[in-house]
Design goal:
By secondary structure, this protein is α+β, with helices and mostly antiparallel strands. Helices cover 24% and strands 37% of the residues. Strands 6, 7, 8, 9 and 10 form a five-stranded antiparallel β-sheet that branches. The longest helix has 14 residues, at 6-19.
Length: 132
């Protein structure tokens, strides 16, 4: 069966694994997933990730989740733009998530960036997800 929203699936896997206190979660690989993991790692929401080849020309991403004092670092991770309803924003109208404490992951012409870096680069784009 085909998957309609692979990024939404990855975010749900991260959310479910963190609620179950797992250390590692595996997701199917794509370049977009890898770029979102780059942003999450740079912002300190995950420990890291690695791409592994599982044979038959397929890859998976192993995401190492991060915990602080027994609780998951990611309190909330939600998909904003879905395949059925894309949400685009320009730099002037880009919302703040939890008044700047959380981040929005934005797909811009300069790559996948957190919202504050997109504002600094003066670019807008598609809001992929929000993380707090």
């Amino acid at each position: 069966m085909s998957m309609n929203d692979p990024l939404g699936d990855m975010l749900a896997r991260i959310r479910n694994a963190q609620n179950a206190k797992h250390k590692i979660v595996q997701c199917p690989h794509s370049r977009l997933h890898e770029k979102v993991c780059d942003v999450l790692k740079d912002e300190g929401y995950i420990r890291g990730y690695k791409v592994e080849d599982i044979g038959n020309n397929r890859k998976v991403i192993e995401i190492q989740l991060k915990y602080a004092e027994g609780e998951g670092v990611i309190r909330q991770i939600d998909r904003v733009s879905t395949p059925g309803r894309r949400i685009y924003t320009n730099v002037k109208d880009m919302p703040r998530f939890y008044n700047g404490l959380g981040i929005l992951v934005v797909s811009t012409p300069q790559g996948v960036l957190p919202d504050y870096k997109a504002r600094a680069a003066n670019v807008g784009g598609e809001i992929l997800c929000r993380v707090f």
